[in-house]
């Protein structure tokens, strides 16, 4: 058992610094890909709709929402570096867009009364809050009637406990320790790719995650993602049903090696529709 307060920002990995590093690599192609990814999830455009991005990171997916016609975009993140980065990205790509960004925890959004949203979006965030179920509940409460709740959560695997310990260590390690861990992890990924007869260099060259990262930023993000929780699709379905939502579509991650979760847990993507209050 640990006495640390997992809801406090100081116990969390510094995601914002990683997003700030990635933001300098964003180009128009990355924006177009983000638009495609978001459109795949919501099943259309966002014309006239209100969009809430919980854990806005680099601001890339808030930008995609603007490109898809959202009338109002609000981005929040517990990390001030992420909020600052989102503002910089919007200054570059959409300086006149109706979008606001603020430092806030998902647990405080209800009290701050940002209103209800046609789409509440949170990709790869709520499992890092320190209380995933409560975070899902609080985020879901901001979805307007008949609105969509779009989220991505780490798949539960037999190795989640191991990764929780690794992530806790990495998030507190020195830069030198983190760099060594990254090299070891990449070397292991390269070895597995070689055993499976795959071209690892080509994989890195063509790498593009749906969250909008490059490979090495994603490695840092994965290793450092603490607090860390995960959930099975069945448990996620049951939880959202309790909160008045019906599954609209999902994209379930399928680990491609013989020990699923050993090298990391992919995110399962879900789109739920509010069917009752």
Mind sketching the topology for me?
Layout: H1 15-23, H2 28-42, E1 50-54, H3 60-67, E2 72-77, H4 80-93, E3 99-103, H5 109-112, E4 117-123, H6 132-140, E5 143-154, H7 160-172, H8 175-195, H9 200-205, H10 215-224, H11 233-242, E6 245-251, E7 267-274
Helix pairs in contact: 1-4, 1-10, 2-3, 8-10
Summed up:
This protein has helices at 15-23, 28-42, 60-67, 80-93, 109-112, 132-140, 160-172, 175-195, 200-205, 215-224, 233-242, and strands spanning 50-54, 72-77, 99-103, 117-123, 143-154, 245-251, 267-274. The chain is of the alpha/beta class and 277 residues long. Helix 1 runs parallel beside helix 4.
Could you characterize the architecture of this molecule?
The protein is of the alpha/beta class and 277 residues long. It has two domains: 9-157 and 226-274, Rossmann fold (3-Layer(aba) Sandwich); 160-224, no CATH class. The protein is built from eleven helices and seven strands. Strands 3-2-1-4-5-7-6 form a seven-stranded mixed sheet, sandwiched between helices. Strand 4 (117-123), helix 6 (132-140) and strand 5 (143-154) form a beta-alpha-beta unit. Helix 1 runs antiparallel to helix 10. The longest helix has 21 residues, at 175-195. The protein is globular. The model has no long low-confidence stretch (mean pLDDT 92).
């Amino acid at each position: 058992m640990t006495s640390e307060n997992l809801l406090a920002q100081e116990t969390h990995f510094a995601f914002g610094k990683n997003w700030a590093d990635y933001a300098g690599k964003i180009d128009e192609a990355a924006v177009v890909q983000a638009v495609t990814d978001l459109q795949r999830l919501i099943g259309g455009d966002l014309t006239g709709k209100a969009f809430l991005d919980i854990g806005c990171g680099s601001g890339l997916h808030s930008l995609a929402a603007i490109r898809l016609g959202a009338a109002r975009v609000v981005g929040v993140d517990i990390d001030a570096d992420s909020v600052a980065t989102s503002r910089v990205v919007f200054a570059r790509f959409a300086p006149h867009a109706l979008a606001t960004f603020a430092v806030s925890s998902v647990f405080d959004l209800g009290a701050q009364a940002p209103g209800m949203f046609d789409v509440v979006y949170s990709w790869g965030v709520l499992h890092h809050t320190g209380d995933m179920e409560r975070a899902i509940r609080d985020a879901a409460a901001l979805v307007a009637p008949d609105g969509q709740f779009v989220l991505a959560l780490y798949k539960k695997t037999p190795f989640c406990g191991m990764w929780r310990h690794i992530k806790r260590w990495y998030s507190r390690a020195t830069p030198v320790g983190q760099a060594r861990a990254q090299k070891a992890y990449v070397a292991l990924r390269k070895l597995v790719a070689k055993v499976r007869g795959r071209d690892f260099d080509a994989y890195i060259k063509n790498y593009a995650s749906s969250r909008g990262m490059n490979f090495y930023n994603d490695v840092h993000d994965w290793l450092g993602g603490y607090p860390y929780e995960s959930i099975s699709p069945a448990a996620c379905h049951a939880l959202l049903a309790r909160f008045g939502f019906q599954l609209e579509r999902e994209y379930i991650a399928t680990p491609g090696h013989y020990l699923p979760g050993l090298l990391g847990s992919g995110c399962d993507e879900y789109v739920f529709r509010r069917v009752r209050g």
